[in-house]
């Protein structure tokens, strides 16, 4: 478990949990974004549309909680050195993508939360309503939802880049990069 060439075990577990919940957040968010409320009602009916919104908000709030703990484990545990060291270009590119993912995955749920609350909608986590934290303001809500949507595409782009890099190391280079983050 304490392999010096790998990220700490709790950090690896968090990586894969966030990846799984992020895919659910993006899939449910993009469905809502593409269909809109009316479109979702027409296609799925009231009950499923409600469930989709509640599920999306629940996944998003879960990401916020997981990423907060993950930021702590990232700062608390030692990050292993690459052995052999990565070429400078790959080091700069991968660490930029990693840092941007941290920023985006902390900002995205906060934006969703604020957009929802300022629109006068409930901030749901499972069957609980969380405090909105800001007052109703329709114009602000529209702007925040716009940025929520834009950041969603940026996250998708970063994830594609990141997964392409991981697959390149795993399947083409056959170096130890994948093992640093894998659970087994
Ligand atoms: C990392 C977490 C999250 C991700 C990746 C994510 C992703 C997305 C995406 C891609 C969309 C579609 C946007 C569009 O095309 O206009 C969306 C919509 C939405 N998100 Fe999130 N979201 C997250 C967290 C949250 C949170 C925490 C909330 C509220 C508590 C939330 C509430 C909403 C709502 C209500 C919509 C529908 C907006 C509309 O109908 O235009 N999201 N989300
Ligand atoms: C889908 C959402 C994903 C997100 C948001 C994500 C995010 C991250 C971040 C931020 C890091 C930097 C380590 C840290 O400090 O936490 C990382 C490392 C890593 N990820 Fe992901 N990841 C995702 C999916 C994947 C997938 C699907 C794979 C494999 C195919 C993968 C393989 C790796 C590997 C091998 C590392 C270690 C890289 C290194 O040590 O330089 N990730 N990931």
Quick rundown:
This protein is mainly α and 184 residues long. It is built from four helices and two strands, in the order ααββαα.
Description:
It is built from four helices and two strands, in the order ααββαα. It has 184 residues and is mainly alpha-helical. It has a single domain, classed as Fumarate Reductase Cytochrome B subunit (Up-down Bundle), CATH 1.20.950. The model has no long low-confidence stretch (mean pLDDT 97). Helices cover 76% and strands 3% of the residues. The protein has a two-stranded antiparallel sheet. The termini are close together. It binds protoporphyrin IX containing FE (HEM) (2 copies).
Please tag this protein with its features.
Fumarate Reductase Cytochrome B subunit; binds protoporphyrin IX containing FE; two-stranded antiparallel ribbon; elongated; mainly alpha; 184 residues; 2 strands
The CATH topology is Fumarate Reductase Cytochrome B subunit
User: What is the terminal-to-terminal distance?
Assistant: 10 Å
User: Nearest-angstrom radius of gyration?
Assistant: 19 Å
- In percent, how helical is the residue content? over 70%
Number of domains: 1
Which ligands, by name, code or SMILES, are bound? Answer: protoporphyrin IX containing FE
CATH superfamily: Transmembrane di-heme cytochromes, Chain C
Sheet/helix structural class: mainly alpha
Coarse shape: elongated
List low-confidence stretches: none
* SSE run: HHEEHH
Strand order of the largest sheet: 1-2
CATH architecture level-2 label: Up-down Bundle
